[in-house]
Write a sequence for this structure.
């Protein structure tokens, strides 16, 4: 790279950490990290590609934020504590403004979660960003997709569908006033539910993060748990900003099939529900949207009748998410 790989790394990706668990960080051949005693190592990796996982031309700071947010969301879904990350960055050109913006977005979120960047790789190529994240979890339990049982109640945090609605406003060039700005922020700056995951760690029977769409991800959780599920469409948390800008069919499609929410989907036996609100505190609202069933597969119901997602309308979902 013309700016020089070393200059890019030194200028944008080298930070001094007060943290005593980073024994050796950026600048050597590998990082050396200290794990707290009696903790299990938790590792995840996620890649985001321009034009696939975010629109070309997305603000660099939003791209930096997203690269870490999607990984933090995976750590949250395990009930784990994030600690460090490595960054593999492929950029078409060493554009300093872009790099500065990217680093600002990445580190803003990293600092909020006290995650240290301890190494990486920088190459010229199409805009592709891979973050690997590591952290720890207590040995007495972590969240999995497979712990659900028939009869467990199914919950989701936040307001699924808003990110897809925000993406739709970008793709359709709709400004949409305050509601549009709110929805775009939900897409561009998803809030990884790390605190909620920590609180659910020994409480939920199963959990995963919702990245591909509520229905698809509920199917994954239910299948991993050897169950099926019924989702009550009327129980889905409603989004006023989404209703302001979109019709009812679009809203329900976004809620059930829209991606990029990075909320937590989780289950628990009914007898634990009374304690849930206290357990999750003011962290974030969680809504009961269904129940796990013996019968396999996930079906949606509305007013006790089977419900299928209305087809037609705007098909943003296939374009941005899913297909590798
Ligand atoms: P090597 O020659 O061993 O592959 P590099 O020259 O690629 O090492 O990288 C030098 C140092 O900078 C290493 O410590 C590496 O982890 C770090 N590094 C490279 N790119 C990044 C990046 N985008 N973010 C953080 N650290 C990086
Ligand atoms: Mg290298």
């Amino acid at each position: 790279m013309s700016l020089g790989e070393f200059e890019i790394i030194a200028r944008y990706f080298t930070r001094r950490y007060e943290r005593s668990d980073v024994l050796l960080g950026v600048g050597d051949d590998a990082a050396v990290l200290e794990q707290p005693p009696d903790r299990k190592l938790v590792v995840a990796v996620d890649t985001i590609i321009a034009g696939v996982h975010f629109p070309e031309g997305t603000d660099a700071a939003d791209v930096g934020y997203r690269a870490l947010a999607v990984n933090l969301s995976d750590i949250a879904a395990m009930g784990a504590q994030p600690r460090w990350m490595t960054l593999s960055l492929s950029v078409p050109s060493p554009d300093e403004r872009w790099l500065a913006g990217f680093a600002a977005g990445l580190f803003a979120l990293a600092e909020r979660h006290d995650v240290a960047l301890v190494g990486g790789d920088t190459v010229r190529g199409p805009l592709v960003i891979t973050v690997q994240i590591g952290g720890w979890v207590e040995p007495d339990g972590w969240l999995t997709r497979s712990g659900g049982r028939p009869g467990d109640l199914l919950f989701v945090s936040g307001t699924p569908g808003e990110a897809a609605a925000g993406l739709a406003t970008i793709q359709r060039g709709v400004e949409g006033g305050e509601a549009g700005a709110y929805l775009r922020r939900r897409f561009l700056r998803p809030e990884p539910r790390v605190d909620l995951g920590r609180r659910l760690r020994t409480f939920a029977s199963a959990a995963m993060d919702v990245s591909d769409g509520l229905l698809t991800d509920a199917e994954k959780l239910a299948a991993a748990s050897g169950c099926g599920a019924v989702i009550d469409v009327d129980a889905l948390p409603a989004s006023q900003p989404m209703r302001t800008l979109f019709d009812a069919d679009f809203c329900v499609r976004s809620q059930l099939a829209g991606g990029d929410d990075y909320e937590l989907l989780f289950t628990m036996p009914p007898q634990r529900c009374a304690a849930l609100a206290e357990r999750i505190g003011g962290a974030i609202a969680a809504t009961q949207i269904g129940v796990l069933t013996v019968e396999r597969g996930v079906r949606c119901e509305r007013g006790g009748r089977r419900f299928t997602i209305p087809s037609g309308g705007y098909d943003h979902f296939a374009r941005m998410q899913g297909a590798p």
